[in-house]
Amino acid sequence: MDHQVHMAQRNALEWQAYAQQLERDLNEMSVANAANLGVRCALSEQLRRVDPRNPLLNDEAMRERLLQEAGDAFLSERDFDAARRVGGAFKVEGRPTKLNQAGEALLLAVRLQNLSPGHFMLKIFEEGDWALLLREALRSEEAAGPAG
């Protein structure tokens, strides 16, 4: 009888240790999910500032499709990198692809080469002073006079 009690106690301790490990794992995953949510919110806010009409911000069906595809990829491979690959390759209609971006950058480089050395656009790219671009746009608008 003592042997059965001892085995039952040992079995209970093993299950308790297993449950405690599951709780630690769940807590660790919850912290990681919370951290990812923070990053996602920060990225969404930055995107909202530079591209407020971006479909990823405004198209609920598109976001749901992305969530579904990333979730399916994770489930099929049991690998977070599978979900990451889905997100990296996800096409957003009306937004540039890497090929488009490269072409736009090349076109911009050609246009910049044609500018005079003191042109304000060159200064913006050299110094990264985007406020200068805004000031120049406002100055051009003021010079044009009131719209009427």
Give the amount of beta strand, in percent: under 5%
Q: Count the helices. How many?
A: 7
How far the N terminus sits from the C terminus, by CA atoms, comes to 99 Å
Give the rounded overall mean pLDDT: 84
Sheet/helix structural class:
mainly alpha
Overall 3D shape? elongated
- Based on CA atoms alone, the radius of gyration comes out at 27 Å
Order of helices and strands: HHHHHHH
Number of domains: 2
Oligomer class: single chain
Low-confidence stretches: none
DSSP strand count: 0
Biggest β-sheet, characterized?
Answer: none
Give the fraction of residues assigned to helices: over 70%
Topology:
Layout: H1 2-50, H2 55-58, H3 60-77, H4 80-89, H5 98-113, H6 120-127, H7 130-144
Helix pairs in contact: 3-4, 6-7
Write a short abstract of this structure.
The protein has helices spanning 2-50, 55-58, 60-77, 80-89, 98-113, 120-127, 130-144.
